[in-house]
Amino acid sequence: MPTCPAPDHPQMAYQVVEKRWALEALESVLEERQSSLAALEARAAQLRGARARQEARVHAQQASNAARRAAYEELRAHAALREAALRRLQEEARDLLGWLLQRKARAAAERNLRNERRERVKQARVSQELKKAAKRTVSISESTNTLGDGITEGTEAEALALAAEPVSQESEAGAKWSRSFRSASATSLTLSRCVDVVKGLLDFKKRRGHSIGGAPEQRYQSIPVCVAARLPTWAQDVLDAHLSEVNAVRFGPNSSLLATGGADCLIHLWNVVGGRLEANQTLEGASGSITSVDLDPSVRGLCPSGGSQVLAATYNQAAQLWTVGEAQSKETLSGHTDKVTAAKFKVTRHQAVTGSRDRTVKEWDLGRAYCSRTINVLSYCNDVVCGDHVIISGHNDQKIRFWDSRGPCCTQVIPVQGRVTSLSLSQDQLHLLSCSRDNTLKVIDLRVSNIRQVFRADGFRCSSDWTKAVFSPDRRYALAGSGDGALYIWDVDTGKLESSLRGPHCAAINAVAWCGSGNHVVSVDQARKVVLWH
C-alpha cells in the first residue's frame, strides 16, 4: 500500500502567519470603522437635536407671524373705521360750511331787506312831510334874508335835509333860500318850488350816493403826497418779530403805524418812534397763515396814529377784518374755495377786494360782510390793487388784468414775462409796478398801457410767488427784496440801479414797504426778521 507524502510544515506555518496578520489588519479596520460609526451616530444625534430645536423655532415663528397677522388685520379694520369716520367728519364739515355760507347769505339778504324797508319808510315819511309843507304858503319879506315864522315842521325837516346833504349843490340851494328877493311880487310864494328843489337834491343823492353794493359811496380823505422820498442807507432797527416767517408788511396812512403778518397767524402793529419799532398791539384770531395785510386808508380812524381797520388775507380760504384797538377779529369774509393771496381796501369806504388761488377776484361790502361781486379768472391771482373805478389783478399765467368796478367784463389784459407776484399803484394812479418770477420789475404807463421800464440787476432774485415790490411815495424809485437777503432800489426815470443794501437779512426777503412820508423803509424775511431802514 502506497504512503502519502508528509505535509510541508514550514509553508503552512507561513500561511497561518499571513492569515493571522490579515485577520489583525481586518480587526484594526473594523475597530476604526466602529469608532467612525460611533462618531457618526453621535453627530446624527446632535443633528437630530438641532433639527428639533429648529422645528421648535419654526413653530414659534409661525405662531408669532399668526399673531402679527391677526394684529395687522385688526389695525386694518380699525384704520378703515377711522377713514370712514374721517370721511363722515369731512362731509359734515362741508355741510356745515355750506350751511354757514347759506346762513350768512340769508342774514345778509335779510339785512338788505330791512335796510330797504327802513329806507322806503323814511322816503315815505319825507314824502308826506313834503306834501304837507307844499300845501302851506310862506310870506317872504323883501327886507329879510331868511324864512318867516310860518314854516311848519315839515319845512324844518326839509331844511335839515338840505343842511345834511354833503354836496356842492347844497350851498347853492341854501343861497337861493337865504338871499333876498328883488321883486315885490315874490312876497306871496308857495313852497312848491322849494319842494322841487328838495326832490331834485334827493334824486341827485340817490344817483350819486350808491355804490355797487347799494351802500352810500363815501370816499376816504386824501393823504398828503410825499414831495421827495429819502433813499434808505442803513438799518436803524432789527427785530425777530414773529414766531415764523413774515409774509406781509404795510404802513398806515400817516407813516407812524406799521402792520406785519406772518405764518404764525398773528398780525403785529408797531409804532415808528425815534427810528425804532415799538410794539403797539397784537391782532389774534386769524384762521391761517397771513399772506397779505392792508390798513384802512382813513385818517379819521380810531387809532390816532393811522387807519381804524386792518384787513388780512389768510391761507384758510378767507380774509379777516380787525378794528384797531380790538385784539379779536371783527369780521370773516368767507366764500373763496382756496387760500386767499391778496386783500386790499378800495378807495370808497367800507369796500374791499380779495384775490385767491381759486381763480376768482371778489368785491366785498365790509359794512355787511357780504360779497357784492365775484369775478372768475382763468388763472391764480397773486395780488390786486384798486384805483378809483378799476381793479387790477396779477396772475400766475403771466398776465395783468384790468376790471371796471362798474362793469362785468375785463377791460384790458397786459402780458408780462414770468408769473406776477405783486402789483404797486402809484399815488397819481398813472403808473403800475409789477414784480414777476423772471427776476424783473416792470413799470407800466397806464395812460398808454405800455411797459415803460424793465428793471434787472445781477444778484436780484424773486424768490417766491408772494414777493412784494413797491413804488416810493413820490414814484421816483422802485424797491424790492431779493432771495439773497438784499434790498434793490432802481431809479424809475433812468432805469438804473440806484443802490443795493445788505446786512441784517440772512434769508429771502418776502415783502417791503415805503412809508407815505418817504423817510422809512421796512423789509421782512423768511427768518422772522423785521428791519427798519433809514
TrEMBL record:
Keyword set includes Ribosomal protein: no
BP term (GO), one: protein transport
Pfam families: ATG16, WD40
Alphabetical UniProt keywords: Coiled coil, Cytoplasm, Protein transport, Repeat, Transport, WD repeat
Positions annotated as WD repeat: 239-280, 333-374, 471-500
Family label: Belongs to the WD repeat ATG16 family.
Protein's UniProt name: Protein Atg16l2
Organism the protein comes from: Galemys pyrenaicus
